[in-house]
Design brief:
Layout: H1 2-30, E1 33-38, H2 40-45, E2 52-54, H3 60-63, E3 73-77, H4 81-89, E4 95-99, H5 106-117, E5 122-125, H6 139-148, E6 152-159, E7 162-164, E8 172-174, E9 179-184, H7 196-218
Parallel strand pairs: 1-9, 2-5, 2-6, 3-4, 3-5
Antiparallel strand pairs: 6-9, 7-8
């Protein structure tokens, strides 16, 4: 009986948290001015064809509101308890969740992402998650791009009004009544014979450059 009560209390906590996340992000997004900049090619691709979205782990909260109408995004979410909160909230933004990471359930998650691209979905991955190193892309997303023949759209984000949480990634929480910039790097294609490590370094550079430009736009 105790286990049943405990499980139900956990489920209730997740439900409440998902609704709070949804309410806050929609409120924040409605009262935020969004700016899109960067590669015209990437912006034209976004929402119109299958791609792989990449953004740093601490910028996740910036991405929910702008992409809420996309309808075909599947986010790779860690197996942690914190990941469960995110996974529960994603459907409220018309997004799917694929559980796993580069450290837990990584291969099966990537296999699942490969399968879901065939159904027309666009994977969205934080390449430095779930535990860093911060601002350094792991190999998984590059491998996925190579095997699916889809381009990676690296998106750097910044907000004029935000706070940073005391976590490994300095997770950023945007506040309303400010500006939020999304900067797209040029699409990154990974060929069958391309070196994975070089792809990681290039993606890291694309994301860091895009983030720096986003910071300039909201400063």
């Amino acid at each position: 009986m105790y286990q049943i009560i405990k499980e139900r209390s956990h489920q209730l906590r997740y439900i409440i948290a998902a609704n709070l996340i949804s309410w806050y992000v929609h409120f924040m997004g409605f009262f935020t001015k969004y700016i899109s900049a960067g590669s015209k090619t990437a912006m034209d691709m976004s929402g119109k064809q299958r791609t792989i979205y990449a953004f740093w782990h601490n910028q996740q909260s910036f991405m929910l509101y702008p992409y809420r109408k996309h309808g075909k995004i599947c986010v790779l979410v860690s197996m942690s308890k914190d990941g469960e909160f995110i996974a529960r909230a994603l459907p409220k933004f018309k997004m799917k969740a694929m559980r796993g990471s580069t450290t837990r359930g990584g291969y099966s998650a990537l296999r699942g992402l490969m399968d879901i691209t065939e159904a027309g979905y666009c994977p969205a991955i934080t390449p430095d998650g779930p535990r860093g190193p911060l601002y350094k892309a792991h190999a998984g997303i590059v491998y996925l791009a190579q095997k699916t023949h889809l381009p990676i759209l690296a998106v750097g984000a910044a907000s004029s009004r935000k706070m940073s949480v005391n976590s490994w990634d300095k997770f950023q929480v945007p506040f309303p009544f400010g500006k939020c910039a999304l900067v797209y790097a040029e699409p990154l294609w990974i060929g069958e014979t391309d070196d994975i490590k070089e792809g990681q370094e290039k993606l890291s550079r694309y994301l860091n450059d895009a983030t720096a430009k986003a910071e300039e736009l909201v400063s």
